[in-house]
TrEMBL record:
Entry-linked InterPro entries: DNA_Partitioning_ATPase, MipZ, P-loop_NTPase
Alphabetized SUPFAM superfamilies for the sequence: P-loop containing nucleoside triphosphate hydrolases (SSF52540)
The protein, known as: Chromosome partitioning protein
Pfam families noted in UniProt: MipZ
Length: 269
């Protein structure tokens, strides 16, 4: 059965869609069959990223390794069991249609609390939570007393993940491997970086997640989106002599894939 990777938090602007595209495409480039879903039915940033990739490949006559992207299927209300939620059925039908055909299913969640996101978290074998290196984003994970910095308790998103873990335990499923990524790191603000790092390490021991480095804030990520490209595609489209920033970004992606420790994945780029 497919290993399900969920990328989520409950705040926009943390780089979820960029992370989703790079992880899914990296797996496809390493020879794995990858299915992909975007649960943000309104904005569809990940879905549009995939649309851009297909259009670019068709326009340029390229065959770049690409995840198999699927929209959620439409469900007739007459097909629902009494009391069944239509979003639950749409998501379960999408996953069931892929899980025996692919090695991984990557699900990108919206930056808000929705029924689809809640159910997706309970399906996660691996949960990736990109987090801006800011205490504004940290507040989604835990409440902090000021000025002491003492952690008072889990916040809304952590409580949702805890509920998903309980559902999986009741169903006899393996525990979620939860990874929080310090994403969109800037080159400055070293004092804030240290405070964030200390707070995340402290919280990780209390509520059970791993901390891993994500992507630094780089212009290249904004430039790749319109053509649906990733860092690993640059050589294939004729970009030679990558600059130091692009080389460093590629290394960040490699470090991320190693940190995820996905089953059967040998990172070879």
């Amino acid at each position: 059965m497919a290993h399900i990777i969920v990328v989520g938090n409950e705040k926009g602007g943390a780089g979820k869609s960029t992370m989703s595209m790079h992880v899914a495409t990296a797996l496809a480039r390493m020879g794995h069959k990858v299915g992909a879903l975007d649960l943000d039915l309104r904005q569809r940033s990940f879905g549009r990223y995939m649309d851009n990739r297909r259009a670019y490949c068709a326009r340029e006559g390229l065959d770049l390794p690409t995840p198999e992207y699927h929209d959620l299927p439409d469900i007739d209300h007459d097909q629902l069991d009494p009391g069944e939620n239509i979003f639950d059925r749409r998501l379960s039908a999408a996953v069931a249609g892929m899980e025996s055909e692919v090695d991984f299913i990557l699900i990108d969640c919206p930056g808000s609390h929705t029924r689809l996101s809640q159910v997706a978290h309970s399906l996660a074998d691996t949960l990736i939570t990109p987090l801006n290196d800011s205490f504004v984003d940290f507040d989604l994970l835990a409440r902090i007393e000021q000025p002491s910095g003492k952690i008072l308790g889990p916040s809304i998103y952590s409580e949702m993940v805890w509920s998903a873990r309980q559902l999986r335990a009741q169903a006899g499923l393996p525990a979620i491997d939860w990874i929080v990524l310090r994403n969109r790191l800037g080159a400055q603000q070293m004092h804030n970086k240290k405070k964030m790092g200390d707070a995340l390490e402290n919280l990780s021991r209390r509520i059970g997640f791993r901390v891993a480095p994500g992507f630094s804030e780089r212009v290249i990520f904004r430039e790749l989106f319109p053509n649906g490209l990733t860092l690993l595609d640059l050589k294939d489209i004729g970009v030679k002599g990558l600059n130091l920033s692009n080389v460093a970004a590629r290394q960040e992606l490699r470090d991320l894939m190693l940190a995820l420790n996905l089953p059967g994945v040998r990172v070879d780029f």
